[in-house]
Every structure is written in C-alpha cells, then in structure tokens.
Amino acid sequence: MTIGRVAFSRLTRLASLALAVVIAATALVTVETQAQQLERRRTLFDVLFGTRQPEYVPPREVRRPIREPRPRKKTGGSITRIDTRAPTSRAVPAAPPPPEKLENAKKVLVIGDFVAGGLGEGLKSAFEDAPGVVIETRSNGSSGLVREDFYDWTGMLPGLISEIRPSVVVIQIGANDRQQLVTPAAKYDFRTDDWFAAYATRVTALAEIAVKAKVPLIWVGLPAFRTQNMTADALRLNTLYRTNIEKLGGEFVDVWDGFVDQDGRFIVTGSDINGQPVRLRGNDGIGFTAPGKRKLAFYVEKSVRRLLGDMSSPDLIRLDATNLPALIDLPPVEEDKGIVSTPPIDLFDPELDGATELLGGAPLPATGRKSPRDMLVRNGKLPDPPVGRVDYVKRPLDTVATP
User: Fold this and answer.
1) What's the rounded Cα separation, in Å, for the pair 144 and 114?
2) Where is this region: Disordered (predicted)?
C-alpha cells in the first residue's frame, strides 16, 4: 500500500510538470506567431541573398483629441414655453353698427314654415344697411296649408296685414304639406288628383287675401331636398304654385337652381352669393346654414327692391328741382358762313336722291348753296379739302391770296 501511494504521487507530479511544460510551450508559440505576424514576411530575394530582416518597430500611440460634450438643443416638443410678453397684435376695428330704420320705412311681411323663417333671416341681412326697409318675419316651423287645425294661415294673414301694414307680402310654404289633406267633405291622400285640386284651392285662398288688400304678393318656390321623393314632390308643388299665383297677378320666384348642381341633383355645399364655396344645407339635408339662408334671400331680394323702389337702396339719391346742379348757360354759337350744311338722307332711299322729308319731317328750307353731294353727283367735282387735311395736295403758293 505504501509503494502504491508513492508511485501514484510520482505520477501525479509528472503529469502536473508535463501540463506546465505544455502550457509554457503553447504560450511561447503564440508569442512567436504574433511576432511573425507583426514582422514583414520574408521574400525569395531575402532567402537567396540573405537580406537582413528589419527590426520590428511598434506603432506609435496616437492620442485621439478629447471632444468636449456639447449640450443638446432642446426641441420645442419637449418644453412648453409660456410667452409672458404683452400681446402686440393690432386691434381689429369693430364694424360700424347698421343705420337706424326710418320712421316711415316700408315693411316686408314674410310668412310661412321653417323655410320661410330662414328666408326672413336672409332678407334681414340683405336689407340691413337700408334704413328705409324693415323685414317682419312671422313664421311657424311646423305649419302648412294642409293642417289648418294646427295653424290656419288663411285666418291669420288678414290680421297680420292690418297690424303690420306691409308694402310687400312674401309667402314660402309647403315643405310640411306632404301628407293627407282633410276637408269637411272627404279625406284625400297625398299625390292624388283630388289632393292637388283641394290644395290648389287653399293656395288660391291664401294668395287672394294679399291681392284683395292691394298688397304686392311674392310667392317663393320650394328648394330641393336630400331625399328623392321629397325633391320630386317639391317640383310638382312648385308647378302648382306658379300656375295659381300668376293667375292672380302675383309673382312667383323660383329658387331651385341655387341649391342643385348642373345635373339638377341636390347639393349640400355650393357657391354663395359671392361665388365662394360654402356649406348651404344642414346635416339633415332639409335645413339651411347662414350662407344658405342668405342665398335663399338673394333670389327674392331683386323682386323686393323692384317693388319698394328708392326706399330699398340707401345709396340712391333722387334728383329734383331742389338738388339739381347749377347749369352753366353757354353763349350761342355764331354761325360760320363757311360751314356747308348737308340735308339728312333717308337710309331706306335706294336712289339717295336727297328726299325733302325724313321720318315725316317738314320740307327743308331752300338754299342757293350746293352741297358737296350735289356737286359730286351733278358736276362730278368735290369742293377743295380744308388746309392741313391729308388729301390737301396744293402747293403753299396756291393758297396765297393775290392782291
């Protein structure tokens, strides 16, 4: 046992020594290999002639310049700056208030449903600067001519005319009338011939109230709507309105083209009265925006101004004997004996023979002087042209008068 332990101990020492030798040899080989890689490789010329291999010169240590860290710029998105300076924006001057209405201003009465309410607002904006015009709007959004039990326009209009005393009555109604019409005799369904006959009777009865009161009447047609059925019904009702109103001597104003495109289809966005693209109708395709109401009134404004005359135009000044400018009396023009008067010639005279009458006038006074036309026709000679004209070809000596 003792011999075995000694042998095992020796073997362990030998193995450790061998392992150390191997590690040292490996390190030496690695160092030589690195040195060879750093040295220049020997060529065939160096082997034959024994050129001395240059010594290895280690590279110099190059120090990189130390860059000082620069502060990063802070973006505007990361920091919110609060400007504590006083605002320097120029104050926009306020628009001057509209002129006050005159005591004797003419009144325009607008009645009807919700479309008429928008029309009244547009007319107020149109005549805001006209002190001689006042717009009186009496509208009921859910009213019409079918449901007289809800709101009776035929019974209300005479009282409104006597109270307001309008110079013009504007009616726009019918957007809520697409429903059954009930009369004391029977009930009529919408879109039937009996319905349109009974409805025309009510339209005529309402219009006759203004006609009998001797007030100019303007009936405004319905515009297009989003739904196709409602648009088709509006076209049919507009035809009925035009036919019955013109029979009574009223004026029908068609606003259809202002709210459809070139193909006649309903539009939400279109041009305003200045030609700029704006939104004209509401999201439901029935109501109107502020530019839409102003455009609706644009078609009626022309007729109202024509009926009201000077009161609707604030900048119009009537000239009479009190404000006419002073006219300067010019002295009479002395008759020049050298002027040759040519009698007028009838353009429908084929012979151009110088007729003595023109458009039934009196005979011309007889003169002994012959006109240039007579001299050309009878004698074939024209009088001498005046001096300085392009066809004057005489020499200067010819114009000198002989003593």
Assistant:
1) 10
2) 62-99, 362-403
pTM for the structure as a whole: 0.58
pLDDT in tens, 190-230: 999 999 999 999 999 999 999 999 999 999 999 999 999 99
Domain span(s) for CATH 3.40.50.1110 in the chain: 106-312
CATH number corresponding to 106-312 = 3.40.50.1110
Task: Return the structure tokens found at 36.
Answer: 């060879």
Q: For 354-399, how does the pLDDT look when each residue is reduced to its tens digit (9 = 90+)?
A: 555 555 555 556 666 677 777 777 777 777 787 778 877 776 655 4
